[in-house]
């Protein structure tokens, strides 16, 4: 979180959120992490202690001088609700400030229905009614472009949504702050709070699964682009020797995602006789695991394409590290033989040592990422969440 400079209402809520996400912390470490002066931290924490929000804990050794006192939260300061919208269901979790998932649920959902957003509002309203803690806000992750977290207008071809008024409709339905973003960006937000973003200020989060996505974090802030569509690397045109380029869900042909997304892998597996016409990706993975050379070749070829495409992104953005996530990492051992040589060979010599971290995956991570839009509001010095982030901070600061 270093490099961020919270001001105004960001300061008290930023300190509370930092203690919530990292646990007991010394004042000097708080100042360093949030880019604040020690005097400001002392003044603000004095008020938080007087209000019963923060308390002084045990002392720890310091580098010279008297031992530093740790500060911690007095009690829970609320939860965030996270919802990940897919083509057939909505996954919902409630998450505490430290990233702990308190509850998890899934609801059938038809995004093509005329009242889809009203349905989504009812799902979230029911989930909120079941919470036993104070709600800070709702984060929603969608597989598409979002104009801004604050307004939440969505274009999502895989859901059949065009200029969908997700944010306004849900705010009216649930009566709480609602932040909306691309689902991969939400994973990048979660990494910033709880994962690799604690160590690095510039990184990529790349997902492989139904689609191929990328969340871009530069200097501690998610880069969203002019229209909220940055990171759509699944739609990079890919050259192959195939005479006929496969169609992509975006309406174009020959996109990276059309080859190595879930549908593309399954199409190739069927064409090569690895699975039948009703076969699944699980069948492809079983075949590769059992030693089927043809199945392993499908993954290796996919890894090679991903490596070449990702190298181009590295040269454009120059991150410190890449994180790989998503449903597809279950088979990463079979992607890797194609990915590693292709990726390293395609990089400039100075970038060939770039670390690539593959993290374990659970379905809850999508929705937990959505909740991180809310939990990260106290660090939103770039103002991505606008009024909605301010409302979250006000709730947190009222602890």
Descriptive tags:
MarR family transcriptional regulator; alpha/beta; Arc Repressor Mutant, subunit A; disordered N terminus; WH_DNA-bd_sf; 3 domains; 5-stranded mixed β-sheet; Nucleotidyltransferase, domain 5; 399 residues
Describe the model:
- This is MarR family transcriptional regulator.
- Belongs to the ROK (NagC/XylR) family.
- The chain has about 400 residues and is of the alpha/beta class.
- The protein has 3 domains: about 10-75, Orthogonal Bundle (Arc Repressor Mutant, subunit A), CATH 1.10.10; about 80-190 and about 365-395, ATPase, nucleotide binding domain (Nucleotidyltransferase, domain 5, 2-Layer Sandwich), CATH 3.30.420.40; about 200-320 and about 325-360, Nucleotidyltransferase, domain 5 (2-Layer Sandwich), CATH 3.30.420.40.
- About 40% of the residues lie in helices and about 20% in strands.
- It contains 13 helices and 16 strands.
- Strands 6-5-4-7-11 form a 5-stranded mixed sheet.
- A hairpin with a 6-residue loop joins strand 8 and strand 9.
- Helix 2 (about 25-35) crosses helix 3 and helix 4 runs parallel beside helix 5.
- Residues about 1-5 have low confidence and may be disordered.
Give a short summary of the structure.
This protein is an alpha/beta fold.
SS strand fraction: 15-25%
* CATH architectural designation of the largest domain: 2-Layer Sandwich
By CATH reckoning, the class of the largest domain would read Alpha Beta
Widest sheet, order of strands: 6-5-4-7-11
Percent of residues in helices: 25-40%
Count of helix runs:
13
The CATH homology group name of the largest domain: ATPase, nucleotide binding domain
Largest sheet: 5 strands, mixed
What fold name stands as the CATH topology of the largest domain?
Nucleotidyltransferase, domain 5
Q: Please state the CA-atom Rg, rounded to the nearest Å.
A: 22 Å
Q: How widely separated are the two ends?
A: 22 Å
Q: What is the overall shape?
A: globular
Any idea how many domains? 3
* Secondary structure category: alpha/beta
**Oligomerization state of this entry?**
single chain
Mean pLDDT: 89
Q: Which sequence of SSEs, written as H and E, runs from N to C?
A: HEHHEEEEEHEEEEHEHEEEHHHHEHEHH
How many β-strands, per DSSP?
A: 16
Low-confidence stretches: 1-7
């Amino acid at each position: 979180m270093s490099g961020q400079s919270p001001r105004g209402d960001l300061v008290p809520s930023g300190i509370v959120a930092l203690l919530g996400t990292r646990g007991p912390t010394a004042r000097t470490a708080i100042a360093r992490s949030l880019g604040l002066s020690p005097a400001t931290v002392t003044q603000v924490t004095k008020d938080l202690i007087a209000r019963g929000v923060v308390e002084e804990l045990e002392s720890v050794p310091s580098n010279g001088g008297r031992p530093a006192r740790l500060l911690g939260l007095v009690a829970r300061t609320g939860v965030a609700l996270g919802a990940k919208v897919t083509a057939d269901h909505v996954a919902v979790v409630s998450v505490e400030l430290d990233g702990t998932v308190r509850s998890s649920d899934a609801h059938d959902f038809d995004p093509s229905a005329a009242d889809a957003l009203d349905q989504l509002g009812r799902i979230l309203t029911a989930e909120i009614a079941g919470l036993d803690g104070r709600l800070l806000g709702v984060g929603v992750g969608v597989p598409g472009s979002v104009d801004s977290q604050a307004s939440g207008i969505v274009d999502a071809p895989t859901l059949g949504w065009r200029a969908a008024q997700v944010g306004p409709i849900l705010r009216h339905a649930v009566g709480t702050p609602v932040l909306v973003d691309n689902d991969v960006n939400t994973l990048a937000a979660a990494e910033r709070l709880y994962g690799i973003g604690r160590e690095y200020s510039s990184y990529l989060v790349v997902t492989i699964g139904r689609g191929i996505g990328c969340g871009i974090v530069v200097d501690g802030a998610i880069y969203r682009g002019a229209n909220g569509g940055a990171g759509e690397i699944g739609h990079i045109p890919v050259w192959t020797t195939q005479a006929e380029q496969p169609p992509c869900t975006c309406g174009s042909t020959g996109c990276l995602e059309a080859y190595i997304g879930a549908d593309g892998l399954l199409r190739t597996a069927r064409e090569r006789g690895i699975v039948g016409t009703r076969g699944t990706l699980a069948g492809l993975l079983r075949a590769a695991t059992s030693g089927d050379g043809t199945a392993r070749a499908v993954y290796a070829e996919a890894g090679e394409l991903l490596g070449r495409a990702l190298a181009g992104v590295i040269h454009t953005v120059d991150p410190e590290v890449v994180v790989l996530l998503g449903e597809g990492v279950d088979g990463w051992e079979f992607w890797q033989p194609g990915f590693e040589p292709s990726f390293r060979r395609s990089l400039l010599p100075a970038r060939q040592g770039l670390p690539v971290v593959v993290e374990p995956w659970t379905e809850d991570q999508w929705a937990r990422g959505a909740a991180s839009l809310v939990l990260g509001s106290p660090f939103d010095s770039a103002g991505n969440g606008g009024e909605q982030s301010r409302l979250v901070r006000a709730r947190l600061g009222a602890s």
